[in-house]
Write a structure and sequence with these properties.
single chain; 16 helices; globular; mainly alpha
Amino acid sequence: MTELPPSDVVPHLDEVRDRVAAPENPTDARRDGGCLRRNTAYIGQRLLGAATSLVAVIFTSFFLFRIIPGDPVRVMTHGRPVSVEQKEALTREFGLDKPLLEQFGHYLLGVLRLDFGESFQYNRPVLSMVGDRLWPTLLLVGASLIVSAALGLWLGVQGAWRHGSTADRVNTGVALTLWSVPSFWLGLILIVVFGSGLGWFPTSGMKTPGVEGFDAVLDVAHHMVLPLVTLVAVVYAQYLLVMRSSLLDEMGSDYLTTARAKGLRDAEVKRQHAVPNALLPTTTLLFINIGFVLFGAVLVETVFSWPGLGKLFYEGLSVPDLPLVQGLFVIFSSAVILMNLVSDLIYPLIDPRVRP
């Protein structure tokens, strides 16, 4: 038999390298490139939207609180023997004698340096006061967020899975009723009934003076009961209604029919298939509410004299203490904008159906 030359059996080494280096399907590279461009454009749009919202908040926070009627110097000196010269000196000290545009320029430079100035009534830096009041708000509103989400999602799942039942109608009706109730009114009712009336719980403050150690932890928890119940009663309905609606939309899907046909029990179908998909729409709601944690609950903290950021904001509005309310408004709004941005960026990762 005649031997074939080696070139007819083994391709040239350069051809082998070219075949290995070249993609098997050129459309894969184009598809990857297009996906990268779409993702980059999606992230860029969300970042641009968040930045635009933040700029709008910074501008709004300055002019909004100057519309509020009231003179800080007059309010702070009311009932005190203060001369006209002393009032004028306070006006100059607060910078309220300067033209509005000059005040705005000074405020804008301070925001860029993360310096919101000093409070008129407390004579302390705004950021320092925010740091002092941050922990009580995180404790109260953070705990209410966890309880509200857990309770609302669980009741929403139970209601949707047995929609039309007596329990579903009762839970939905109670949730809608509590959601429509003003939080301060509900707080006052709880104070009258369980505080002043029965005397079961404290009605104001965060702790009792002089209590230390582990007893202090129990004392704070005792003071938290009424404001926590007020916040949970008003907020949990959002999670219940959103979860119930999302699960009802999923219950007619083909994949649930397929899961039942495979022999899965009803509880397994609900736990493994229906609920995970129905949870997706609650992601945005959860992140937005996390942003509102810093804002706290102005009315609830005020009613119960809870020493958090919400009560501090109310105290600033009563003067009005312009550096304080401006700084808190920017911080609160920035937290909401940031959490909304995070939810927009995370949602496509957990739900492939909305990927760009």
